[in-house]
Amino acid sequence: MSLDDALALMEDEEPLDADRLTSLEIIGYRNALTYIQQLADDAEFVLDESLLRSLHFMMLGHDLTKSPGRYRRGPIYVHDDERDLTVYEGPDRDDVPRLMRELVSGLQSVSDNCPVFVRAAMAHLNLVMIHPFRDGNGRMARAQQTLILAREKILAPEFSSIEEWLGRNTSEYYRVLASVGGGSWHPERDTTTWVKFNLVAHHMQAQTVLRRVDDASRIWSWLEQVVETRRLNPRMLNVLYPAVMGFRVRRTSYEKDAEIETGTANRDLRMMVDKGLLIARGETKGRYYAATQDLRRERQDLMGKRAELINPHAAAVNLY
Known about the structure:
Elements (H helix, E strand, L loop, with lengths): L2 H8 L9 H20 L9 H12 L16 E4 L4 E5 L6 H13 L7 H15 L6 H14 L6 H4 L2 H6 L1 H12 L10 H38 L7 H8 L6 H8 L3 H13 L3 E4 L6 E4 L1 H11 L17
Antiparallel strand pairs: 1-2, 3-4
């Protein structure tokens, strides 16, 4: 799914390209993570199997064939389609309930000697190795990691989740999991490599957010000059900024962000098209606006000055 469609779903709008099943998957994951955020400061919070199974149902409840909220009743394998190879076999189905009870018991026993980021990483690893569900185990493991961090008041999505970083480094993510897992259920194996990978991921994600803030500041200042030079209303920044960042902007989202009426939004958008700032594409409900080639080129020039991400442990011996 494109970022445009994901953002549209977050705003309860119809995606432009994504199919219905993909949309339901995204909405389910959003609902589960939103619920985790809501539980962060709940005085009555209880971390138990029922909560984990409920989160799984939120993610996959749109497809009952995947047994949402229920543990698997058969064997399970992780298959590498590129190599046509089975890379992991989960523990026997009869062991799943016991292993999940042990996992939850461990999560309930918080040790002050274990940093929260390490606890969260291990919660992720243990669930994905148990592989208790027929589908959605990766999502559940990452959501559980976020849950552990959220309970420690680490709530900003950019810091409570390494989903973005894993999405951009998926092959390394799977490689480390495969290395630590050893092909099947082996809880006695050393997990140092996995913990280091997660700590690096959090650090790199934090750098990414910091760089994004710097990028946004420079681009916003530049667009303010563009608006002032062309004598446009400052509210138009609400559509120019996302358009320049590569998003397909709709009139409805502009109305909401700028808090204006439909007629005003339409006039503004036509004016920006006439000024050579936006290009209109599509018709009726599918109409959206994108930045012109000139604006995108100037934005690329600005982005070329961004700081590089630095792995703080790159020089460490045997990092992975």
